[in-house]
Specification:
Chain B: It holds the Pfam family HypD. The complex is a heterodimer of chains A (68) and B (359). Chain A is α+β, with helices and mostly antiparallel strands and 68 residues long. Chain A contains one helix and five strands; from the N terminus they run E-E-E-E-E-H. Chain A has a single domain, classed as SH3 type barrels. Chain B has two domains: 304 residues, HypD, alpha/beta domain 2 (Rossmann fold, 3-Layer(aba) Sandwich); 43 residues, no CATH class. In chain B, helix 8 packs across helix 13. With 359 residues, chain B is α/β, with parallel strands linked by helices. In chain B, the strands form three sheets. A five-stranded parallel sheet of chain B has the order 2-1-7-8-9. Chain B is 40% helix and 17% strand. The chains are: A alpha+beta (68), B alpha/beta (359).
């Protein structure tokens, strides 16, 4: 139920975006986020973008794990 | 970039570190998210963990935690001719006497939707019908309900508000002390909304470390590693493993919308009973969208656990599904006895599909 998938923004029109994952496109409501841009990765849950994914933070985690 | 979180070598390395940190001592860690259980079971993570380390599932599936009374209300409204919209998992959960699936067979109008927005669109299309949406879900889902209510939802649209809050349920488990939990793997997607603050008091008051964890196998192993490290260093902090998605302050825009629309109330959970301040209900100014008030019905208390079912103990983290005498015999995904076997995110259903032993 709390499943959310990381999907890439390919189109934005007002407060609605088209997001894509592995060739599958979906509509996503963007009203819970500020400053969404094309190319951003968003977490999509039940048709709503609930958070933007931060690639820099992912890289940081990756580095931490490499030196563990 | 995100594929790294499935890297087998890193997983092996983390498993080795976890084994070393746990040092043969018994630890019990609890997660409270159906998606965590699915990833753990699907990826066989329990096989990578030492025998002395238990990872048990708590009340992490909103469909499972919804009491019969709320399902009964949806059934009653469907039988009166209103159109009920719901997320798929809710369909087959048995209420006190029937389920939404059975009502649909009898001609009741019940439609599965992917998003609450689909229910809004239906309300606009079918102006002559009352549309009642079963608004279930934790903090991850409640903001989407808030958005559609704030967007001037049509007057023929209302909700049965079954939104529940996770931190009060975690705290209730700690207060009861029935399940000896050494630390919590906190839910990543709930936390994208609420951030880390709502867990802080609990961590200090009950001396339990909490790590907000993501949903790839590496996330979960790293979350477990961070919990054990805290236990070893005698720290009881709230840490974020899932930093690529969770900010300490959460999603402020979503929190603001939730606060505009909902007020916090006591809530009855299947298996856990009444938990103070663990539910959300619509504020008075939105009462025309509150099905309970709109149709002048009351959600009564219900008896939620059938004889032969141990869903209550599963939801409290006291037992694993194979401990139940009905598991896989009287209770299967095709013919479920309890809610935890119905929902695809229910612990019993996940165990039935991916693992039939404890470890």
């Amino acid at each position: 139920m709390c499943l959310a998938l990381p999907m890439k923004v390919v189109k934005i029109k007002d407060k609605e975006g088209t997001v894509e994952l592995g060739g599958v496109k979906r509509r996503a409501n963007l009203q819970l986020l500020k400053d969404v841009n094309i190319g951003d990765y968003l977490l999509i849950h039940a048709g709503f973008a609930i958070q933007k994914l931060n690639e820099k933070e992912a890289e940081k985690t990756l580095r931490l794990l490499k030196i563990l | 970039m995100f594929d790294f979180f499935r890297d087998e070598k890193i997983a092996q390395k983390l498993a080795e570190r976890i084994k070393r940190l746990s040092d043969g001592k018994h630890f019990k860690l609890m997660h409270v998210c159906g998606t965590h259980e699915q990833v753990i079971a699907q990826s066989g993570l329990r096989d990578l963990l030492p025998q002395n380390l238990e990872v048990i599932s708590g009340p992490g599936c909103p469909v499972c935690c919804t009491p019969n009374s709320e399902i009964d209300l949806a059934i009653e409204l469907a039988l009166k001719g209103h159109l009920i919209t719901t997320f798929g998992d809710m369909l087959r959960v048995p209420g006190s006497k029937s389920s939404l699936t059975k009502v649909r067979v009898l001609g009741g109008k019940v439609k599965v939707v992917y998003s609450i927005q689909d229910a809004i669109e239906l309300s606009k299309e079918k102006k002559d019908l009352e549309i009642v949406h079963c608004a279930i879900g934790f903090e991850t889902t409640a903001p989407s309900t808030a958005v559609v209510i704030l967007n001037d939802a049509p007057s023929n649209f209302s909700i049965i508000c079954s939104h529940r809050l996770i931190p009060p349920a975690m705290e209730a488990l700690l207060i009861s002390g029935e399940c000896k939990i050494d630390g919590f793997i906190a839910p990543g997607h709930v936390s994208t909304i609420i951030g880390s603050e709502p867990y802080r008091k609990m961590a200090k008051e009950y001396n339990r470390p909490i790590v907000i964890t993501g949903f790839e196998p590496i996330d979960i192993l790293y979350g477990i590693f961070l919990l054990l490290k805290q236990i070893k260093e005698k720290r009881n902090n709230v840490e974020i493993e899932y930093t690529r998605a969770v900010k300490p302050e959460g999603n402020l825009m979503a929190i603001k919308k939730m606060e505009e629309v909902f007020e916090i109330c006591d809530s009855n959970w299947r298996g856990l009973g009444n938990i103070p301040k663990s539910g959300l209900r619509l504020k008075k100014k939105f009462e025309n969208h509150d099905a309970e008030r709109k149709f002048n019905l009351r959600i009564e208390k219900s008896s939620d656990i059938l004889p032969g079912c141990i869903c209550d103990k599963i939801l409290k983290g006291l037992n694993y599904p194979p401990d139940c005498p009905s598991f896989g015999t009287r209770c299967t995904p095709e013919d479920p006895l309890g809610a935890c076997m119905v929902s695809s995110e229910g612990t019993c259903s996940t165990y039935f599909k991916y693992a039939d032993e404890k470890k």
